[in-house]
Amino acid sequence: MIRIENLVKSFGAFNAVDDISLSVPEGAFLVLVGPSGCGKSTMLRMLAGLETPSGGTIAFGDRIVSDGNRGWTIDPAQRDTGLVFQSYALWPHMSVAGNVDWPLKIAGMARPERQARVAEVLTMLGIAPLATRYPNEISGGQQQRVAIARMIAPRPSILLFDEPLSNLDAKLRVEMRTELLRVHRATGATSVYVTHDQVEAMTMASHVAVLNQGRVEQFGTPEDLVRNPATAFVATFVGTPPANLVPVSVLPRERAASLPAQASAMYRPEDLSVSAIPIEGSLAFDFAEASPVAGRTMLTGISDSLRITAVVDAAPRFAVGDKVHFVLPEAPAALFGANGERLS
Ligand SMILES: Nc1ncnc2c1ncn2[C@@H]1O[C@H](COP(=O)(O)OP(=O)(O)OP(=O)(O)O)[C@@H](O)[C@H]1O
């Protein structure tokens, strides 16, 4: 269990992490997701003991490992955590087996035990045949597996990942997601995973914390976030594709009638339909793009700074320059106020 209470990290007058509290159950896979600069890496660095918090506490189980109020943090090596970064940082002069062996050697494990553990984790990651190669003799994906093997070899009870897949190509990234989850389950460790990619977050997480400007916008399961977004930011950040947010002021009159004028209405892409001509409840957009998604069609329209996306079974063929009329259901799926707060 990881317990984070009122955590703050400031750089001068700026709070990169601004009063975050979260409890992560034992064995959970927590993903910290949010746009660039929202404070994800700073959070992870504090969990790893690489930064001392400016305020608040972090506890692993019953043990406080960082206390910003008193200005101390337990050393990274003494925290029972393993960390994998986006750059693999393997030791170039050591073989694959040597890289994985090194932390065990440092921990004082006897040679026969070490050999058995190295063989075990290399097999778990599917890289046993590469044991005697050097980092410059293996691919990027294989290097990332070695970095993960090296992290889990000493059996840390908490695994920390900072965008570990972002240097891999799209196909490998999808494969490695599954692989990482398998490793997570096999070790039983509590994992915290940082990414700016909401698809990665939603597919891997047991729990997600959506961060924005150093604060948690919402903490919950992936299903909670998609079904019941707490803020306008979450609504438009998660989901494939994310939900549409349309200011009530631009809605067709028959749809805006009973809604507060300053609010924004949320419509799910799958609740919209499209038409080549204006009809009741439709809004006109310029056609932007269409793409097939799992046997359906995803259509996007643009009007000034507003983008709208519908996912439909069948659609007329549109070309750039055409008007597409997106038909909105009678009631929005949610309403958000001017500050992004959920109204209904
Ligand atoms: N050492 C530092 N000194 C000053 N400001 C910093 C420092 N480290 C981070 N920041 C600032 O804190 C904010 C959060 O940074 P952080 O690296 O945690 O963001 P992030 O969400 O991980 O972003 P990205 O996805 O781009 O890596 C940013 O505005 C960043 O510029």
TrEMBL record:
<dbReference type="GO" id="GO:0015408">
    <property type="term" value="F:ABC-type ferric iron transporter activity"/>
</dbReference>
<feature type="domain" description="ABC transporter">
    <location>
        <begin position="2"/>
        <end position="238"/>
    </location>
</feature>
<dbReference type="InterPro" id="IPR015853">
    <property type="entry name" value="ABC_transpr_FbpC"/>
</dbReference>
<keyword id="KW-0813">Transport</keyword>
<keyword id="KW-0472">Membrane</keyword>
<dbReference type="InterPro" id="IPR003593">
    <property type="entry name" value="AAA+_ATPase"/>
</dbReference>
<dbReference type="GO" id="GO:0005524">
    <property type="term" value="F:ATP binding"/>
</dbReference>
<keyword id="KW-1003">Cell membrane</keyword>
<dbReference type="InterPro" id="IPR047641">
    <property type="entry name" value="ABC_transpr_MalK/UgpC-like"/>
</dbReference>
<dbReference type="InterPro" id="IPR003439">
    <property type="entry name" value="ABC_transporter-like_ATP-bd"/>
</dbReference>
<comment type="similarity">
    <text>Belongs to the ABC transporter superfamily.</text>
</comment>
<keyword id="KW-0067">ATP-binding</keyword>
<dbReference type="InterPro" id="IPR008995">
    <property type="entry name" value="Mo/tungstate-bd_C_term_dom"/>
</dbReference>
<dbReference type="InterPro" id="IPR027417">
    <property type="entry name" value="P-loop_NTPase"/>
</dbReference>
<dbReference type="Pfam" id="PF00005">
    <property type="entry name" value="ABC_tran"/>
</dbReference>
<dbReference type="InterPro" id="IPR017871">
    <property type="entry name" value="ABC_transporter-like_CS"/>
</dbReference>
<protein>
    <submittedName>
        <fullName>Sugar ABC transporter</fullName>
    </submittedName>
</protein>
<dbReference type="GO" id="GO:0055052">
    <property type="term" value="C:ATP-binding cassette (ABC) transporter complex, substrate-binding subunit-containing"/>
</dbReference>
<keyword id="KW-0547">Nucleotide-binding</keyword>
<dbReference type="GO" id="GO:0016887">
    <property type="term" value="F:ATP hydrolysis activity"/>
</dbReference>
